[in-house]
């Protein structure tokens, strides 16, 4: 839903019914250089290790961009710039880039915390280091 001051909340997109419980949701209101041009809205949902990503168009239609697998339970799902990030405390991080349209998984040391600074992702890891 989105809020319009003159008419209250309006439904913008409704996903197909999923066979699993949605545990995480991430929304990006504008993706520069995204899959559908410079004014994309994207929403992602995750359950266990599975992630589904949709691109939402101005007319309210949505198209599935892809289904991705992290291989371990997703504990955080969020956007940083034009990238969808999925992390697990086990040390796995998955990244979908809207420009390259690729999903990539990387193993790092176990993750305790994260934050974003602009388009940089900062990872606080259990070895006492901060990675970006």
Task: Please tell me about this protein's structure.
This protein is mainly β. 0% of the residues lie in helices and 56% in strands. It has a single domain, classed as Lipocalin (Beta Barrel). The model has no long low-confidence stretch (mean pLDDT 85). InterPro entries: SHKBP1/KCTD3, WD40_repeat_dom_sf. It comes from Pandion haliaetus (Osprey).
Which outline best applies?
globular
- Please estimate the helix content: under 10%
Walk across the major sheet and give the strand order. 3-4-5-6
* Amount of beta strand: over 45%
CATH topology: Lipocalin
Poorly predicted ranges: none
State the distance separating the first and last CA atoms: 33 Å
Short account of what is shown:
The chain is an all-beta fold and 132 residues long. 0% of the residues lie in helices and 56% in strands. The model has no long low-confidence stretch (mean pLDDT 85).
């Amino acid at each position: 839903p989105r809020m319009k001051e003159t008419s209250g909340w309006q439904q913008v997109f409704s996903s197909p019914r999923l066979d699993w419980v949605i545990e995480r949701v991430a929304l990006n209101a504008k993706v520069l250089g995204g899959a559908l041009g410079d004014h994309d809205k994207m929403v992602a949902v995750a359950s266990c290790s599975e992630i589904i990503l949709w691109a939402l168009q101005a007319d309210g239609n949505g198209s599935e961009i892809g289904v991705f697998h992290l291989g371990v339970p997703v504990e955080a799902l969020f956007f940083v710039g034009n990238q969808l990030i999925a992390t697990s405390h086990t040390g796995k991080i998955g990244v979908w880039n809207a420009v390259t349209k690729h999903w990539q998984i990387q193993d790092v040391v176990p993750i305790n915390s994260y934050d974003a600074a602009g388009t940089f992702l900062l990872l606080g890891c259990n070895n006492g280091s901060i990675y970006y």
